[in-house]
Amino acid sequence: MSRVLNKLAVNATRLTRLACFGALVAMFVAISPATSSAQSAPPSSGLDVPTTKLLAIGTFTAKGTPDQWKPLLPSEVRDTVLLYLAGKIDQWYLKQDQSGVVFMMNVTDPKEALELLGRFPFGQAGMMEFQIIPLGPIAPLRVLLTEPAK
Amino acid sequence: MPDNKNPRVHAEILPALAAVVVPTTKILAIGSVTAKGTPAAIAPVLPHEVRATVRNHLAGKIEQWFFQTEGYGVVFIVNATSTAEAHELLEKLPLGVAGMMEFELIALGPLAPLAMLIGEPPRS
After folding, report:
1. Residue B81's domain is classified under what CATH number?
2. What is the DSSP string of A22-91?
3. With a CB-CB cutoff of 8 Å, which residues 16-55 of chain A face chain B?
4. CA-nearest residue of chain A to B47?
5. CB-based contacts of B68: which residues, under 8 Å, 6+ apart?
6. Is A143 within 8 Å of B74 when comparing Cβ atoms?
7. Is residue B41 part of a domain?
8. Whole-angstrom Cα distance, residue A121 to residue A119?
């Protein structure tokens, strides 16, 4: 929990982060046993789940015009398949608005993912950028564990 | 054709890939808590939200579900063929009804550039 709070403190200037923090507290309170305050509950009883996957959303930059990326596409595809065969890319999709790709990655460190994806031809040429969203098990499911089945 | 405008798009890249047409098979739904989603507001709704989400999973609609371990939102991969279909599904979730969670929807399809690897097999 303190790790979480530290992370949030760094980003606390953003209103959305504050809103998210509020939601975290709310979920935490809702999930914790209704005995005492949320602060006294062990961290593991809240929304503290491990990062197990990374969502990588790749989007063409302004440099990534068709004239520029077309010659590199065959190499890009091969590198993508190689990363899949290495077990790093779990799922791959094309965004239907043609703006780029979405990968679900078997990687837990965003730096590693950016480093791997940055080696691709599009990344090397500055034509595609990836947004990384760390993901874990759907933590609020824990709510269902607080009421035993009757 | 895209059925929503992706705010992350910086370049006009439509024509070149248009030659390879793939169907929309999944919708990526990135859920974030809105400013209305205060702790006091969310707490009583959450048990209903979780149950509605599980029901959608059991119905085969929400295929994959994840928690954002740094952003405190959710990510779903939804079995829908348009963002409109996914929107209709997700807006009925209790937090959505209450205006406390919003979803960014991204239509996905098979990785079309893989088509480049399909040539005639080499002759032996």
Report:
1. 3.30.70.1060
2. HHHHHHHHHHS-SSS-GGGS-GGGTT-----EEEEEEEE-TT--HHHHGGGHHHHHHHHHHHHHTT-EEE
3. 16, 19-27, 29-31, 47, 49-51, 53, 55
4. A143
5. A133, A134, A135, B74, B75
6. no
7. yes
8. 6
Residues of B in contact with A49 (CB under 8 A): 67, 69
pLDDT tens digits for chain A (150 residues)?
A: 344 433 333 333 333 444 444 444 445 444 443 333 333 333 344 778 999 999 999 999 999 999 999 999 999 999 999 999 999 999 999 999 999 999 999 999 999 999 999 999 999 999 999 999 999 999 999 989 876 666
Specify if B69 maps to a domain: yes
- Are A93 and B111 a contacting pair at CB < 8 A? yes
Interatomic CA distance for residues B84 and B107, integer angstroms: 10
Q: Which range of residues forms the domain containing residue B80?
A: 23-101
Q: How many domains does one find in chain B?
A: 1
| ipTM of predicted complex | 0.81
**Whole-structure pTM value:** 0.77
Domains of chain A plus CATH, in order, are: 2-48 (no CATH), 53-135 (3.30.70.1060)
